[in-house]
Amino acid sequence: MLLETLWRQVGCLYLSDLRTEPYNRLARLAAQTLRAGDFAVQEWNDAAEYLLGRGSGGYPSAEAAQRALILK
Fold it and tell me: What per-residue confidence (pLDDT) applies to 57?
């Protein structure tokens, strides 16, 4: 799962910590080191919604959701 991968890379204690700074910024930075195709579009959309704190309406591709995370 993408969020679990980011959580492990960032090294915070709880998954919910990814919503707080500095972990949120670190998770978004870690997202750019991943290959978009390694995770399903829905996982990228879920991660974008979780980390950005808003409903995205669903990005059409994993690459688009990854870009949204990186460019926040």
Answer: 63
